[in-house]
Amino acid sequence: MLERDGYIPGVPCWVDTSQPDPEAAVAFYSGLFGWQLEDAMPPDAPGHYFAARLRGGDVAAIASLPEGAPERATWNTYVWVESADETAAKVRDAGGRVLTDPFDVMEAGRMAVCMDPEGAVFCLWQANRHKGAQIVNEPGSLNFNTLGTGDVEAAKAFYGSVFGWETLDLGGGARMWRLPGYGEFLEQRDPGLLERMAGSGAPEGFADVVAALGPIADDQPGPGAHWSVTFAVDDADATAERAVELGGRVDVAPFDAPWVRMTVITDPQGATFTASKFVPENRDLAGQTESAASAA
User: What's the burial of 43, exposed, middle or buried (CB within 10 Å: 0-12/13-18/19+)?
Assistant: First the structure.
C-alpha cells in the first residue's frame, strides 16, 4: 500500500477523536487497531494530542477535549484546503457557520472548525508540516468519512459551493461525494490505479470519490446531521468482539453490504465509528450501507 504524502483541496485528509480521558482512549484504540501512540504536545501543555501510527506512518490522533467543550467524545473529520481563511469565508457565504476562526496549530498547519447549515461539524486543514494521514485504506487506518444528513439537496448545494463536490449514485440507495479530478491525482502517484479499479468492476467516476453520503430519515433515532468515520479492518466480526472486550459497545452487529462487511461501534467514552472489511464478492448486494452510515 502506497503511503500518502499530501492531498489536494477538497479531500478529507485527517481524523482525530476528542476524548474526556485521552489516556483511556489510547488503551482502547491501541488494543483494537494496534496503533502506536506518541504525545505530540510539550510536557507542560495543558492537554494531550496522541499521534497514532502504523508502520511509522500517521493514521489518526487522540486528543484532550478543547477547553470549554462539552464532556462528550467525538470523531472529527478534517478537509484539506489551500487557505483555511478563504475557505472559512466560503463556509459563511454558503450558509454555514465558523465555530472556531482559523488559527495556527504550532508548525503543523492552520485550521478552523465549521458547521454546515444542517448542523454537521467538520474541520478545515491548511497543511504545513503535517500532511494528513500517511496510511489509509488498510487495516487500522482511515477508510471513509461519511456525512449523515436529513437534507441531501441542501448538503449538495453547500458542499458543492465550498469544496466543489458532486454526488455519485451507486444504485441501491448508496451515494458518494466525488471531486472531479481526484482520480487523476491518485493515478499520478499510483500508475495503473484507474485501470485496476475499472477491472475490479468499480462504477464510472468512483476514482473521484472522496467521501460517502448517508441520508437520515426524519424519524430515525440518534444524532442529527453529522460527520462520521470508517476504519478499515481485516475482520469485522473479530473487531466487534475485541471492541466489547476492551469496554466498547457494538451498536450495529457485523453485516454484509455492497463491497464490504461492516459494523458500527461506540468506544467506552461515547465516540462512534464504523469498522469495515473490503469484500469484493459482496459487490452486487442490495444497498444496506446507507442505514449503517447514518447510524454511525
Answer: exposed
**pLDDT value of residue 2:** 59
Q: Three-state SS for 64?
A: strand
Q: Give every CB contact of residue 104 below 8 A, 6+ residues apart in sequence.
A: 110
Q: Say how far apart CA 65 and CA 173 lie, in whole Å.
A: 36
Domain that holds residue 165: 1-296
Give the CATH number, domain containing residue 242.
3.10.180.10
- How many C-beta atoms surround the C-beta of residue 246 within 10 A? 16
The CA dihedral of 150, 153, 159, 161, to the nearest 10 degrees, is: -150
Highest mean pLDDT among 44-48, 147-151, 213-217: 147-151
CA distance 79 to 172: 27
Q: For residue 296, name the pLDDT band (cuts at 50, 70, 90).
A: low
Whole-prediction pTM? 0.92
Strand partners of residue 75: 17
CB atoms within 10 A of CB 266: 16
**pLDDT band (50, 70, 90) for residue 262:** very high
Strand partners, 232: 276
The count of structural domains within the chain is 1
Report how far residue 61's alpha carbon sits from residue 77's, in angstroms, rounded to the nearest whole number.
11
Largest CA-CA distance found in the chain, in angstroms, rounded: 54
Q: Rounded to an integer, what distance in angstroms lies between the CA atom of residue 292 and that of residue 277?
A: 14
Q: Give me the residues paired with residue 147 across strands.
A: 213, 227
